Amino acid sequence: MDTFGFIIHPFDSSDIAKKFPFLKRWPSEILEAMARKSPPILADHLRGIRSPYNQIEGWFVATPLTARQMAYLPLPFVLQKIIAAGKKLEKQGAKVIGLGAMTSVVGDAGITIAKHLKAPVTTGNSYTVATAIHALRKAARLMGKELKESQLVVVGATGAIGSICARIMAPDVGGMTLAARNEQRLSELASLILRESGKVAEISTDVRNAVRRADFVITVSGSPDVLIHPSDLKPGAVVCDVARPRDVARQVAEVRNDVLVIEGGLVEVPGSYESDLRFGLPHGIVYACMAETMILALERRYECFTLGREITIEQVQEINRLGEKHGFRLAGLRSYEKALSEEEIDGVRLRAKQVMERHQPMDSEVIHF
């Protein structure tokens, strides 16, 4: 049988306690200290993935490091931990290995990891891009917004996912702002977009200020910290949060019922997919980065499909085509582990309209010169 493996990790110490409940009351400092010394853990055996063309099985292996540890511990140590998880998957029989969450971000985005493993490695970023764009376009339709008349901000624009999302979306939006920390890399991306599409993209190193002007936001920073807060978004804004850990604070959904936050990159798996690890998702739904690894195994494409920080438009189109061939599809729209109905989205649209109408000046308030 064709096989795959996928490397996961806890987002924070509370995830470690969820896996091992007897550690629930232990301080996070101790849990993270234990994680630094722990070997990779075989987390689950995945079965029931079936398309009209093939059937596969796979495994989740967890490296115990949290997202913050991956961001701040010495890079050689972090890579060693990820490579050890990959070797454990190889022993299980995985013929292609996917990198989940921060394991696909650290260092050179999988290139060094692939050099130390026999099985090919993919970050899953190409399919993540494809599904995020599908989700954003669907949200725009349901919110009654025209992309051609809207301002899009891409947070984490200089990363692998952010840059290709910006390049693909540039011809279809009214205006675009690229936001990230490195101004030089932002300028280089803006120049590339100008050459490719004729679109003049603004750049910003101030994420919170940039998103305040946005009608749409795609955010995929790779930061272990929250970047977007409730006060940062204007009424009616649509945010596609592709990042794991999330870039958007959970409080946005709790206190801003006039904005729409959706989770990018969620897909339905064909067949009768079985796994004890749900990651807060319903049965049969996985992140697109996981799905890319599954698609490659179903297609018997045992190759390093997406590695490094450069993704081509052709790669996104190819993996999207293969996903459709094998029966993968966008899993509706979801927000913070909850499915969104069209009625709920319509409610967001109406509330945003009411808020904007309340804040429009009356004729008597307009000052004429």
Write structural notes for this entry.
It comes from Collibacillus ludicampi. This protein is α/β, with parallel strands linked by helices. It folds into two domains: 2-126 and 267-329, no CATH class; 128-265 and 332-358, 3-Layer(aba) Sandwich (Rossmann fold). 38% of the residues lie in helices and 19% in strands. The protein has helices spanning 13-19, 28-37, 67-72, 75-92, 111-115, 125-142, 160-169, 183-197, 207-211, 251-255, 288-298, 313-326, 342-358; strands spanning 2-8, 41-50, 55-62, 97-99, 121-122, 151-155, 175-179, 202-204, 216-219, 238-241, 260-263, 266-268, 271-274, 285-287, 329-330, 334-335, 338-339. The protein has a six-stranded mixed sheet with strand order 5-4-1-3-2-13. A hairpin with a 2-residue loop joins strand 16 (334-335) and strand 17 (338-339). Helix 1 (13-19) packs across helix 2, helix 6 (125-142) packs across helix 7 and helix 6 crosses helix 11. The longest helix has 18 residues, at 75-92. Mean pLDDT is 92; it is low at 362-369.
The best one-word shape is globular
Structural class: alpha/beta
Radius of gyration: 21 Å
Mean pLDDT: 92
Query: Portion of residues in helices?
Result: 25-40%
Our count of helices gives 13
Question: Alpha-carbon distance between the termini?
Answer: 77 Å
Strand order of the largest sheet: 5-4-1-3-2-13
Identify low-pLDDT runs: 362-369
Work out the number of β strands.
Answer: 17
* Main sheet attributes: strand count, strand direction, barrel closure: 6 strands, mixed
Following the backbone from N to C, one meets helices and strands in this order, namely EHHEEHHEHEHEHEHEHEEHEEEEHHEEEH
How much of the sequence lies in strands comes to 15-25%
Q: How many separate domains make up the residues?
A: 2
